[in-house]
Design goal:
Elements (H helix, E strand, L loop, with lengths): L5 H14 L13 H14 L7 H30 L10
Helix pairs in contact: 1-2, 1-3
Length: 93
C-alpha cells in the first residue's frame, strides 16, 4: 500500500478537504456523506490499492479525514480574528 509515506498521504487528505470545501460544515461530524465521497474520490485519483481492501482503505481515510477536518476548522476558528477567513473557505460558505 503506501505505509512508507503516511505523512505525505495524511497531508494530501487535508489538501483534498481544503480544495473541495464548498459547504458550511460547522463540525467534522456534520460533514455530509456526499462531501466525504467527493474527498475520497479525489484520494482515489491520487492513490491506488487492491480492490479487495477498498473498505479498509475507506475506513482509514474516514478516520484521518475526520481528524484533519476537526483540526482545520479549529485552526480556522482560532486564527479568524488575527488572519481572517482562510483562503480555502469560500465567501459563500
Amino acid at each position: 500500500m503506501f505505509a512508507s509515506d503516511l505523512s505525505s498521504v495524511s497531508h494530501k487528505i487535508s489538501d483534498f478537504i481544503r480544495s473541495k470545501f464548498d459547504h458550511p460544515y460547522p463540525t467534522s461530524k456534520k460533514t455530509t456523506l456526499t462531501a466525504r465521497d467527493v474527498w475520497f474520490a479525489e484520494f482515489r485519483k491520487k492513490y491506488r490499492w487492491d480492490e479487495s481492501i477498498e473498505d479498509s482503505v475507506r475506513a482509514a481515510f474516514e478516520k484521518v479525514a475526520q481528524t484533519h477536518m476537526k483540526d482545520l476548522l479549529g485552526d480556522a476558528r482560532k486564527d479568524f480574528k488575527k488572519k481572517g477567513r482562510p483562503h480555502w473557505i469560500g465567501e459563500v460558505v
